[in-house]
Specification:
Blueprint (H helix, E strand, L loop, with lengths): L1 H23 L3 H17 L6 H4 L16 H6 L5 E10 L6 E9 L2 E6 L2 E7 L5 E5 L5 E5 L10 E4 L3 H12 L5 E4 L2 E7 L2 E7 L7 E3 L5 E3 L1
Length: about 220
């Protein structure tokens, strides 16, 4: 009836005003947090273990500051606006030896850095995909094109996997290329060769090369 329709209209107007008041009261920092968390939800919600626990954890602007980078590295990437830096473990494509590295994300490229050396540069425009598993591990694979400038796909382990992948796909504008896989995934080693990574659940987290030569992530 008329009173019911009026009540519904007033309810919608009140709700709209409350939302407008909330949005106007947001700080710039809080707004960025919410925008990033929306992307994280679209990529990981209902797909990867640990997502719900990550909701209450704010993303940091960066895990390391620009001043923490070696001056030689800063010189090599001069002119690019550094957006995010985080320590990572990189696994060799052959042999899967674990190596401490830094992942540096600029406005246009991702860099895998060893001390004063840039080990690999991936321009976002050439990025082929980003893969993670559905389990609680911190593995992310950055898929690159098959060309002479690239050594193969990049296998990284990140402590803050949701934060790192969100930053990467937002900067690269490649949200649709993020895949959360179950069981296993293929990655390019280089020279037309491929490797296999297997994900499994276990009592203790570990990453190792199994008897078949596959990289096993527990």
């Amino acid at each position: 009836d008329f009173l019911t329709q009026t009540s519904e209209m007033l309810r919608k107007i009140c709700l709209r005003n409350l939302v407008r008041k909330y949005c106007r009261g947001l700080t710039a920092e809080r707004k960025v947090q919410l925008q990033q968390k929306v992307v994280t939800s679209a990529v990981f919600s209902g797909k990867k273990e640990g997502y719900l626990e990550s909701l209450s954890q704010p993303f940091l602007d960066t895990r390391l500051k620009e001043n923490d980078l070696n001056p030689k590295v800063l010189q090599l990437i001069r002119g690019e606006n550094i957006k995010y830096v985080t320590p990572v473990i990189k696994y060799d494509r052959n042999g899967f030896k674990a190596r401490e590295r830094l992942l540096v994300l600029t406005q246009s490229s991702a860099y895998v850095v060893e001390m004063a050396k840039i080990k690999q540069k991936i321009e976002y425009s050439t990025l082929k995909g980003i893969s993670t598993s559905n389990l609680s591990d911190g593995i992310v694979v950055i898929h690159v094109p098959e060309d002479k400038q690239q050594k193969g796909d990049v296998i990284l382990q990140c402590e803050h996997i949701f934060e790192t992948v969100t930053k990467l796909c937002i900067l690269a504008n490649k949200q649709s290329l993020v895949k959360v896989v179950k069981g296993s995934l293929r990655f390019r080693v280089g020279s037309g060769k491929e490797g296999t990574m297997v994900f499994t659940a276990g009592p203790e987290p570990q990453v190792f090369k199994d008897k078949t030569g596959q990289l096993t992530v527990v």
